[in-house]
Request: fold
Amino acid sequence: MGVTGCLVLPWRGLVVLCLRLLFLVPAGVPVRSGDATFPKAMDNVTVRQGENAILRCKIDNRVTKVAWLNRSTILYTGNDKWSIDNRVLLVVNSKAEFSIQIQNVDVYDEGPYTCSVQTDNHPKTSRVHLIVQVPPRIVEISSNIVVNEGSNVSLTCVATGRPEPTVNWRQVSPKVQGFVSEDEYLDISGITREQAGLYQCTAANEASEPVAQNVKVTVNYPPYISVAKNTGVPLGQKGVLQCEASAMPHANFSWYKEDRRLTEAEKGLRVDTRDTFSRLTFFNVTEQDFGNYTCVAINKLGNANASVILYGVSAPTVATLPPEETTAALTPLKGPGAVHDGSNSASWVPGCPWQVLLLLLLLHVTLQF
Reply:
């Protein structure tokens, strides 16, 4: 009955059964590191996903049969390949070494591999553990967000890899020293305008260089006027009033004199507006232009205003210039009645009363002799 049962077994299963009985290699056999007569294979082989792994088994001339197994599956027995995986190759089969290669390894290749040998005395085994490392990859990250100042912000970054990657967050623009969070979650309570910018999630492990992705956080806030100065201008000259405001979204500017809004359509006036400032230019200031002006900055969150005064000043004259500027102003005089010797001394100009008297006196003395 036992013989009949053996005969009905599939031939391949029979060979596997006989091989196990021959090598005495039950599934999950432990490493026999205490047997000094058989040099065991290396304990661990670590490779990155996609690389090739070589599993080496050192043997000696007493070995009569040898095989590589993955858990309970036979990969090679001597030169005979049992694995149907094209990535598994025999690379060395000599009296000193029996080694196989697994090409383009993946995470499902990770696990224990057993080298089993048959000697004249009894079978021996040695095990190697294949470790597959996977570079970190960010698989989920928060999108760019826009929030109002004072809101709570929560950012998430999920990464995979082997070993499990470490994840952290930091603000990179404007640059802030140190990490903001050493976790896959970043929570900011009551965010301020200074905390707006780029936040970077970084994932790292031993397998490769860290990977990073950025999230832009925009913080909206009402306008704040930072620059608005009074300006003095002489009559008939060009005058400029400027108003600068910080806001997000950028503010819309407008100018008023008393209750009247000013536009470029008015004669002799121009309004230039950019994202952060507005400039009111008068090309030929008149008495009617002097007075109080109001700059208004507004966005969807609020508004701000500031008053600036355009006032009159006297035009600079020669008498009011500093001494060095007075000399410089007199120096270029040329033509009839003007003499300049190239120095800073006063010029001798005929026609001055004391100079005429001196000339007449000298002439009189000369005629006396």
